[in-house]
Amino acid sequence: MRTLVMVAGLLMVGAVADAHVTVSPQESRGGATERYTIRVPTEGQVPTVALDLEVPPDVTITGVLVNGAYTYEARREGDRIVGITWKLEIKPGEVAEFVIFARNPKTGQIAWKARQKFADGTSADWVGVEGDRRPAAVTKLTAGR
Predict the structure, then answer these.
(1) Does residue 144 sit within a domain?
(2) What CATH number is associated with residue 20?
(3) How many domains does the chain have?
(4) How does pLDDT run across 48-89, given as a tens digit for each residue?
(5) What DSSP string describes 5-63?
(6) Considering 1, 13, 44, 74, which has the largest number of Cβ atoms within 10 A of its Cβ?
(7) Is residue 77 helix, strand or coil?
């Protein structure tokens, strides 16, 4: 019985680990202003209660779409937004989307690092490289027209 409980617990942790935070679009023009949608699923048994998004240093946030279903707080260094925290209970099996508007850097790619926080005090850091267990969402930049 104890083994069964431990296996069930590990399966639930695995489900949370597979719940990737994604950002779309996955490709955009360098130097363009883009609408980005951050998608946050709760695939485990514990509700998500917040999402912290780190804004990469070469990205400029120009706006945050407001929705009455959640609250958000923008962290600033001077006039620049360096991070955004959204607070909303996302129950197991549900998905939430948050929208920002941002000016892209001219070249390269954007790695969107995020921390998904759960009601039980745990979190999942989506900050790794592609192929990692918890990769950051990436937007590849193409040459501007």
Answers:
(1) no
(2) 2.60.40.2230
(3) 1
(4) 999 999 999 999 999 999 988 999 999 999 999 999 999 999
(5) HHHHHHHHHHHHHT---EEE-SEEETT-EEEEEEEEE--SSS-EEEEEEEPPTT-EEEE
(6) 44
(7) strand
